[in-house]
Design brief:
single chain; 5-stranded mixed β-sheet; 332 residues; 11 helices; alpha/beta; 4-stranded mixed β-sheet; 2 domains; Peroxisomal Thiolase, Chain A, domain 1
Length: 332
């Protein structure tokens, strides 16, 4: 039976580093306050106008292809997960395809925020298993820094986010002991307004007004307590569902690579699953929340550092805006 294998991983973050102390110069916060609540010490921001997530994705894809031992020209499909596309339309996937020199290669954008990589992985897995495509480029990429509120009113959201991109090159394998074993995803729109960006929006006539700007509706808003409560409930729940369906226990896992939204969330999820802390990957301290890029960025780094190795059994859970959540079980 054909399975979907991770052939190579790559990641890229822009060079500009923004520390908690840097943010404290812009609004009322402190390094101690941010670290205690989130575990974040710094994040990366773009520093040139005209740089979008598709631009950050290019070196990530090139690195992933190099690690997979393939040429970029061998990619036959692109899936681009992002909540911060370069433009309202067209999608970032087609822009990436053009920048990679891949005319005619199909490109699908996935708009499932922090769960976007898992949603994209399920699509890529189906494509590869059925033989539709043989080399899928699955990217998560975000530029948050141009769309967050650097004021006292926006600090609770602003301190969380960073820019970056990461890529998985996926292809078929006949090894029934390797590859994507399972992906389970969910959504519940009743929580949509607990973490959202209200305007501009096609639901409004007009899409944006001075009143919306004055009322701060053009900045992301979050009910932090509700998000924390849902995340620490749904991530363990879906993780256990995937593990049990595949006859796996938490003790069988070599590594857990969760979405990097908040270190406190991931620590609590690990405790609920009874996963030893040393088996849970955290890199939020360096990058903040890179949304759709966070899981592949963390996995790519773990492989680069020798922490994740061929044959390892890895769980990847996520929760985010929508609300959306899911988990993937993979053997490298």
């Amino acid at each position: 039976m054909t399975r979907t294998a991770f052939l190579g991983m790559g990641h890229y973050v822009p060079p500009k580093v923004v520390t908690n102390d840097d943010l404290a110069k812009l609004f009322d916060t402190s390094d101690e306050w941010i670290q205690q609540r989130t575990g974040i010490k710094e994040r990366h921001y773009i520093d040139q106008d005209g740089t979008g997530p598709s631009d950050l994705a290019v070196p990530a894809v090139q690195m992933a292809c190099k690690n997979a031992g393939i040429e970029v020209s061998e990619i036959d499909a692109i899936i681009f997960a992002t909540l911060s596309p370069d433009y309202t339309f067209p999608g970032s996937g087609v822009l990436l395809g053009d920048k990679l020199g891949l005319p005619g290669v199909p490109a699908l954008d996935v708009r499932n925020q922090c769960s976007g990589f898992l949603y994209g992985l399920q699509v890529a897995d189906a494509w590869i298993r059925c033989g539709m495509y043989k080399c899928v480029c699955l990217v998560g990429g975000e530029v948050h820094s141009t769309g967050i509120d650097f004021s006292d009113e926006g600090r609770d959201v602003t301190v969380l986010f960073g820019d970056g991109a990461a890529c998985a090159i996926l292809g078929p394998t006949e090894d029934d002991q390797a590859g994507v074993l399972d992906v389970e995803i969910h959504a519940d729109g009743s929580g949509a307004k607990e973490l959202w960006l209200e305007a501009p929006a096609s639901a409004h006539i007009p899409r944006i007004t001075h009143e919306m700007i004055d009322e701060r509706r053009v900045w992301p808003s979050m009910n932090g307590r509700q998000v924390f409560r849902w995340a620490t409930s749904k991530m363990p729940e879906v993780s256990l569902s995937v593990l049990q369906r595949n006859g796996v226990t938490p003790a069988d896992l070599d590594l857990v690579v969760p979405h990097q939204a908040n270190k406190r969330i991931n620590e609590l999820v690990g405790q609920k699953l009874e996963i030893p802390p040393e088996k849970v990957v955290h890199n939020i301290q360096k990058y903040g929340n890179t949304t759709a890029a966070s899981i592949p960025l963390a996995l790519s780094e773990a492989i680069q550092e020798g922490r994740a190795k061929k044959g390892d059994l890895i769980l990847m859970p996520a929760f985010g805006s929508g609300f959306t959540w899911g988990a993937a079980l993979v053997r490298l």
